[in-house]
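Much of the work behind modern protein science is quiet bookkeeping, done one molecule at a time. The fold becomes a row of whole numbers, each drawn from a learned catalogue of backbone shapes. The protein below has been through that process, and both of its lines are reproduced in full.
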Amino acid sequence: MKEYCKFESALHILVGKWKPVILLQLISNGTMRFSELQKAIPGINKKMLTQQLRELEYNDIVHREVYNQIPPKVEYSISEYGKGLSTVLQALNDWGVAHMEHMDTLYGADRLRNESDELS
């Protein structure tokens, strides 16, 4: 039962529609400003991006750097601790690609697109 609790703790950090997408953007692109992240993630609004970034920052997965200048400048990057998630996220991404191909083989591209549209 203890193993389950540890697994649940890890999942808690990644749960949500946007956290894995945010993390993959930061892992792929390195340091990004808020506006760059928002542009890179179609469909996310400012409030949700802010909330997800704060949760990731709280868990020391994302580092937030504030520059004391005018206009204010804030940059986000994966923390040293958060870099440990990169292999996990890459594996999940790879599995997701394989799964989409598998579902396409089973049901065809049209049905797969319809299901993806319903999930968004």
Strands lie at 32-33, 62-67, 73-78. The chain has one domain: 2-119. The two ends are 34 Å apart (CA to CA). The chain has a mean pLDDT of 87.
